[in-house]
Amino acid sequence: MTRPKVFLDYDQVELNAAYDQAVYAPNMPQLLARYASNSAMARARLGEPQRVAYGASEVERLDIFRTALAGAPVQVFIHGGGWRAGSAKDGCFPAEMFVAAGAHFLVPDFALVQDVGGSLLPIEQQVRRAIQWVHNHADTFGGDARRIFVTGHSSGAQLACSALTMLAEPIVRGALLVSGMFDLRGPRLSSRSSYVNFDDATEESLSPQRHIDRIHIPLVLAYGTMETPEFQRQSREFAAALKEAGKPVELIVAENYNHFELIETLANPYGILGRAALGMMNLR
């Protein structure tokens, strides 16, 4: 029996799979464990980061890995995790590469969706607050407030890009958005709605592709060819919409990388994402 289509050319089973990374990345558990072990090694070599509060709630804390140079550019990394997992502790594996290249590397913690009643809105507000804190306090850790860059992965790319469309002033110089979701209609119709309380306001306000007029900085989008079809489509269509609107955008297609493998290249100056991030920051 043919199942009815629920979104584009997907039936419900297909759409659920297209937003379930485990279906397309069977090595997901090993890679998530590697994020944690590589992050632990980075902390062992660099020393424990300075941890500061960027907001009032307990989770609103930010880890700062400092480079030795004063007035250095700043890289802010927004981790992924499907809005319901991930942490600054396990998301600092790229820190050593940025510090060695002469940039401060910062990773904020923020609420998990299950801890805020299933709403994405307060999480975006926290990410935005963290970025604003970095701008307001860059001089306290030797950073240059005029050279703040943001990288986001997966749900972190969606949160980062949403925050960029809502900042009151253009305080970020550029962003690298890896394997993100830029329109929430597909996720809303998928099984992700079982733990996220999507509503019309959330879908509209947190779909950056619908607010391209608010994007005024260069964006680099990246996805792997072994990702789910929806995560590939999301980046392709967002890049095309940005280009059509005359916005500065570059699209990187990483051959033979899946969703979890690609972000590991951010920790390597010769890797696909490491090279892109350092190039955006005019570093080597």
Can you characterise this structure?
- The longest helix has 19 residues, at 28-46.
- By secondary structure, the protein is an alpha/beta fold.
- The termini are far apart.
- The strands form two sheets. It has an eight-stranded mixed β-sheet with strand order 3-4-6-5-7-8-9-10, sandwiched between helices.
- It has one domain (5-280): Alpha/Beta hydrolase fold, catalytic domain (Rossmann fold, 3-Layer(aba) Sandwich), CATH 3.40.50.
- Strand 7 (143-153), helix 6 (155-166) and strand 8 (174-178) form a beta-alpha-beta unit.
- The model has no long low-confidence stretch (mean pLDDT 98).
- It contains eleven helices and ten strands.
- Helix content is 37%, strand content 19%.
List SSEs in N-to-C order: EEHHHEEEHEHEHEHHEHEHH
Secondary structure tally: strands: 10
Q: Radius of gyration in whole Å, from Cα? A: 18 Å
CATH class: Alpha Beta
| Corresponding CATH architecture | 3-Layer(aba) Sandwich
Short description:
The chain has 284 residues and is an alpha/beta fold. The chain has helices spanning 12-18, 21-24, 28-46, 95-101, 121-137, 155-166, 185-189, 200-205, 229-244, 259-262, 272-280, and strands at residues 5-7, 10-11, 50-53, 61-65, 72-78, 104-108, 143-153, 174-178, 219-224, 249-254.
SSE layout:
Layout: E1 5-7, E2 10-11, H1 12-18, H2 21-24, H3 28-46, E3 50-53, E4 61-65, E5 72-78, H4 95-101, E6 104-108, H5 121-137, E7 143-153, H6 155-166, E8 174-178, H7 185-189, H8 200-205, E9 219-224, H9 229-244, E10 249-254, H10 259-262, H11 272-280
